[in-house]
Amino acid sequence: MKSLAIISIIGLALAIILGFTRNANVGIISIGIAFIISQFYGISANEIISGFNTSLFLTMLGVTYLFSIVNSNDTLTITAKKIVKSVGKKTWLLPIVLFIMGFFMSFIGPGAIPCLAIMPIIAVPIALQSGFNPIMLSIIGIKGAQAARMSPITPEGILVHQLLAEQGILDAVNPVFISMFLMASINAIVAFIVYKGWKPKKSIEVEEETLPKFNSSQIISIVGLLTMMVCALFFKMNVGLVAFTIGSILVILGVVEDSKAIKAVPWNVLLLVTGVGILMEIILQSGGIDIIISALSSVMSEKTSAPIMVLVSGIMSFFSSGLGVVFPTLIPTVSGITANVGGISNAIELASMVVIGGTFTGISPISTAGALIMAAISSNEEATKLYPNNKIFTELFGWAFLYLIVDALVTFTGIFNFIATTF
């Protein structure tokens, strides 16, 4: 079994490398590697398929389906524009508004991933009009979305808390959420300071854009979103099934075409998460997690376990998805590492470090968040003249490394251990 464990870990690393170098879906590659491994070790097809997490898949599909409906009829876009217009000439409020906007849009259910595309598109034109650096406003908006990533009704929150529950850790919702919010806020403040956000290059001239009122379809969509939040947060209903139900009602009411909503579902993300889960099941069953735990524990001490975990997850996130690869690979190790290292080490703190490290270096231009910032700026002719692609590429790489260092330094203070043991 030990050889199977080692081979399956190597297989996961190979899937990540191939996904990065060949621009392919790591989840699909993982399924293929899992099948190849099974042929050499006599693992049945049923055993491989058992690694497909049906519950997680349906939950994520339901939530993303509902939000593809809401995005398709511009409900969230118009809401965002109305919020920004309300700021008027109070330029200094714009970074705060974008952070709060990203936070709210992520918190209510879709998680950070859909907002990564929305926030730069909103932030870039606002930045050009107000004199702010578009990279700064995009980063701050994305940090707001990432601050709410561990909301219990987001796909990311659902995945992480399910992985922790499998280890018997059931009280991590508040501390993980608070830790994520704190670190995202610090990162946003760092961006504001570096770009001297208190000194925009020109005073804002507010354009009198007449925003349309919400139409009947958008009002119905808002009611549907609020209903999902109430059912999931207050009545503890399965968020995926609730989202499917509300989504089907919205389609029946003609809010959006069903085919349009289904096409907008991020199938690549669903395949990524569930595909890696199939290979991870072989790693789990063969004792591969124990090998990873031993390797990490050998270089960790009571005081360095959390910083090392945030560095490891951060480096992994440079080349792979936090949701699809980093979280399902490292979260299952936290209870074992805590048992090995002992002392002040805390499993919930380590889980928070995986989430933080696996999220914030994603601002690099070869990761989702950074790539979407580049795309938003590059698609704007005025922005392209001021900020060439090479300059943006270099800056975003610099931000990824800076956040890796900042996150590790903040972790050394012990603040996340305090949060894990207090909340």
TrEMBL record:
Q: Where exactly are the transmembrane stretches of this chain?
A: 25-43, 55-72, 92-109, 121-142, 176-195, 241-257, 269-296, 308-330, 350-377, 397-420
What positions does the domain Dicarboxylate carrier MatC N-terminal occupy? 5-147
UniProt cross-references to Pfam families, sorted A to Z? MatC_N
Name listed for the protein in its UniProt record: Na+/H+ antiporter NhaD
Task: Tell me which UniProt keywords the record has, alphabetically.
Answer: Membrane, Transmembrane, Transmembrane helix
- InterPro entries, A to Z: MatC_N (IPR009827)
Keyword Transmembrane helix among record annotations: yes
Q: Which domain of life is it from?
A: Bacteria
Q: Which organism does this record belong to? A: Anaerosphaera aminiphila DSM 21120
